[in-house]
Amino acid sequence: MRVKSYVPLLKLAPILAWFAALFLITKDPVRFFIDLASFYSFYLMLSISLNLEYGCTGIPNFGKVMFFAGGAFVTGALTARLIAPLAGVSGMFLAHYKLYNVIVGTQVSAFFSHRVDVAMATFVLMLVLAAAVGAALGWAASYPAIRLREDYLAMTLIVTGELLRIIARNYDPLICGTIGVSVPDPFYWLSGLPHDLLRTSIMLAIAFSTWALVDALAKSPFGRMIRAIRENELAAESFGKDVIKVRMKVLMVGSAIAGVAGALYAFYSGTVQADDFMPIKTFVVWVMVILGGAGNNKGAALGALTYLALDRTIVLLKGYVSAPFDINNLSYVALGVALILVLMYKPEGLIPEKPFISGTSRRRSRTSDQENP
Amino acid sequence: MKTMLTFEVFLDSLIFSNLITLMAIGLTLTYLTLKIPNFAHGDMATVGAYVVLTISRTFSLNPYLSFPLAFLTAGALSLLSYLLVYRPLSRRNANIVVLMVASIALEIIIRSSLHVYADIMSSVQKTYYRGLTYYAIKGFKEEPLRLGPHKVPVVTLTSTLTAIGITVALYLFLTRTKFGIAMRASIENPNLASTLGINVNKVYAASWFIAGGLAGLSGAFLPFRIPTSPELGWELLLKTFAASTLGGLESIFGAVIGGYAIGFAEIMGISMLSSPPFNLSTSYRPAIPIVVLIATLLIVPKGLTSIDVGKLVRRRGKSEG
Amino acid sequence: MLAIKDLKAGYGKLQVLYGTSFEVREKEILAVVGPNGSGKSTLLKAIFGLATIHGGKVTFNGEDITGLPPHERAKKGLAYLPQVGNTFERLSVYENLKMAGYTLDEDELKDRLEEVLSFLPYIVPFLNRKVWSLSGGERQMVAMAMALMRRAQILMIDEPTAALAPKVVSRLLKKITELRDVLGKGIILVEQNAKRALEVSDRALLLVAGQQVFLGSPQELLSDPELARMYLGVK
Question: Does the CB of A370 have a partner CB in chain C at under 8 Å?
């Protein structure tokens, strides 16, 4: 039994070695590490939320990017405009927000730099709003199809995501349409290395707390119930569990998490643009979960780490290799092939799910599952 | 002026609908065999478009000449995806979600490869390979036909004839030939079919080839109207889903109905919505099929062809949903 | 001639049949009866190759077919008509028959079609109708026709009269006896409706919880008060 708990750590080793190699190659290790850690925080949250939805409950959330976008859009749309009056930004700028949004953003950041209290309060407020918006989107997007089969649900989720993106691109009041909106920096009251370190630490703290939260959820009676539903929906229904309600709840929780990740992303990158949230981002999260191992959070975490390693390698390589085409596309091809190979030959992923039920009861439930004469 | 606009909008809708219908037929075919929506289907169209574009550009040929090759290439690609990915996975008892994930992975592979291809060809031939239409190719000119005061692009005629021709051919194939009937039988009850000696694998493979070919053919028509780029397939896919779902994913006839419904809804819809009193920006056009899809799923998820008109009439009130 | 020797079968690791043995020849009807869940359907599936064999042998016309896949067994002349899924509902009756004769060439197909339709004239008016629009009894006839298209020698029929009206049941059973008398087929007839099945059959097999409890003449089975009462619900 002892040996088993070291296995995931063993699987961690090659990834860590890989990162070490990247550190050596890169020109600015400190910046590289901070960037890595920041991106890991939102990838981890996305990966864990998808694992909760698909790995634990069996919901095919092919619209993950939409909830991520929702949190980012809300942050982009509101932060500057909400605080601008407090910051004394000229009314004219606000009236033509699309044109002047960068100026407004900069002014609000400046305001944040000597009002830490407002800055941090705004930060927290945005995270909460992002979670709420994410959850609301989760409810709205799944409502048409939650009663239908998985393929309809998957289609609905993708399609609603695209709808959101189209609206964001064209409806200027949201995030300034195709230009994108500038997001003020709530950590502007620091600068240089302390600034980056504090921001990244907070992001990681939020991400790891989410992991802990979802872990607790998975071990709770609610967690057992969603696993039961995944294994045998019919049986769970006969016990009186409202499967549809449970699925919706899980989707709302997962979407809330994705929303918070989106808010963090918005603050980190400083701008929010509709085309940053294309379906390929959903695909990338799926790669993380399936590669890492669906059904357990450790797998999701490892998957996120692995993808990050791959991604950063490509970015570094781009600097050294020149080709007549965009290397990103080649990396997507490689990811796609890798995903298919994993699905065919090692569908449990790098860290397979450990059964939660003890040996005997699981065996008994298996044989009764046999085909009916 | 008003009548010209409406007639032109009608023609536009017709061309567009022809393409969507061809794609929807293919999507429904693959859905019938695999029970999942094939996310890579849209990219088969882009493949067809690029085959014709490449040949026309390289050899300065009339695009129509390479249409059969577009059909064959896309068909072959579709067949390969079935043989190498979908069939092995379903043999291993993969569930719906796993198949869908594989489908998305394939989509990413094909689309990204197309991007790489476009980039490489651009630098090799020192010309643009994105945002192309056939008219941008040297030496290709087409005189529009004339119908009274109206100009009718040749592609209206060719695409409509193709769509009708394919639909009729498919109908005859599925009802008059032994292999075609075997296809319907295998789709409905593969166990019974294989007991009777029908090679279900061969039948499924053929249906995937046909589906891909249809998408490729549809894609070949695209550069007549739309600046073509590798991303086109994905946009088309969403509209095709809407069409197939509206018509009913279980019915090829439904694909035809859905195709024309979505095509006309999108073009006539945006034409109406962008004029007074709505004045909606035309960039909302892609939202129309999405809204129709969501509405379909809310109201009649199994599609229009699942509505039993007889039952509706007899039981005024609730309908089977 | 179909010979079953000590057949043990089930689904995967689950065992349902614990060793049955019997023979079926041409021109005879063997009725398989017993309470629900006793393994009657499993028996037919196992003989046809659709269940897991745990032991025993299935011989057809002297050839050991225990390991053959279902469509090979079908080719040799063994037909299986399950309760559901025995026709293509979205195809027309004619198309169904055409599919049943898939492996035949043009002329053979025509001849067999004539033969089958003359035996089952009931379905001639329905040739162009889709099977889903037919009634239960008519569908069973179509299934029967399909089996005959393949020149089956032994037909295994699983509860054909379930959910059918009494008049239709009579007609169907009459047709089944004609299969034996007119066409000389051998038939294994699994039936819930034990009394009627025993009335038309030549031999009877009683299965209880996967065990072979009785093999012999139907009259003997009907007249044994214990067996008849306990397992067949017959007074």
Answer: yes
Counting as contact any 3 or more CB pairs under 8 A, the partners of C are A, B
Residue C184 β-bridge partners:
none
Structure letter (DSSP) for residue B136: G
Domain assignment of residue A312, yes or no: yes
CATH value at residue A213: 1.10.3470
- A372–chain C nearest CA distance, Å: 8
| Domain contains B2 | no
Which pLDDT does position A356 carry in this prediction?
54
Nearest CB neighbour to A371, from listed C11, C37, C39: C11
Distances (CA, A) of A134 to A57, A67, A69, B188, C216: 18, 5, 9, 41, 71
Number of separate domains in chain A:
1
- The residue of C81, C102, C103 whose CB has the most chain B CBs within 10 angstroms, and thus the best one to mutate to test that interface, is C102
CB-based contacts of B310, cutoff 8 Å, min separation 6: none
Is the pLDDT assigned to residue A102 strictly greater than 80? yes
Residue contact C13–A367, C-beta within 8 A: yes
Cα angle B27, B29, B33; round to 5: 115
What is residue C125's three-state secondary structure?
Answer: helix
What DSSP string runs through A293-319?
Answer: -TT-HHHHHHHHHHHHHHHHHHHHHHH
Containing structural domain, residue B99: 7-320
Q: How many domains would you assign to chain B?
A: 1
Instruction: For residue A36, give its domain range.
Output: 7-319+326-355
The band of A237, judged by pLDDT with boundaries at 50, 70 and 90, is low
A294 touches chain B (CB under 8 A): no
At C52 the pLDDT is 87
pTM: 0.85
Residue B1 in any domain: the answer is no
Mean pLDDT of A234-245: 69
Query: B194 contacts in C (CB within 8 Å)?
Result: 70-71
Residue A361: inside a domain, yes or no?
Answer: no
Instruction: List residues bridging with C156 in a β-sheet.
Output: C80, C188
Do residues C207 and C34 lie in contact, with contact meaning Cβ atoms separated by under 8 Å? Answer: yes
Per CB-CB distance under 8 Å, the chain B contacts of A335 are 105, 108
What is the rounded average pLDDT of the residues C203-228? Answer: 84
Contact: B106, A336; criterion CB under 8 Å: yes
State pLDDT tens for residues B164-190: 999 999 999 999 999 999 999 999 999
Query: d(Cα B196, Cα B190) in Å, to the nearest integer?
Result: 10
Nearest chain A Cα distance for residue B293, angstroms:
8
DSSP state of C202: S
Best of A344, A348, A371 to mutate (most B CBs within 10 Å, chain B): A344
Say what the ipTM of the complex is.
0.86
Going by pLDDT thresholds of 50, 70 and 90, the confidence category of residue B52 is: very high
C13 Cβ under 8 Å from any chain A Cβ? yes
Contact by Cβ (8 Å): B255, B25 = yes
Q: Give percent above pLDDT 90 in chain C.
A: 26
Mutating which of B181, B195, B199, B251 best tests the C interface, going by the most C Cβ atoms within 10 A? B195
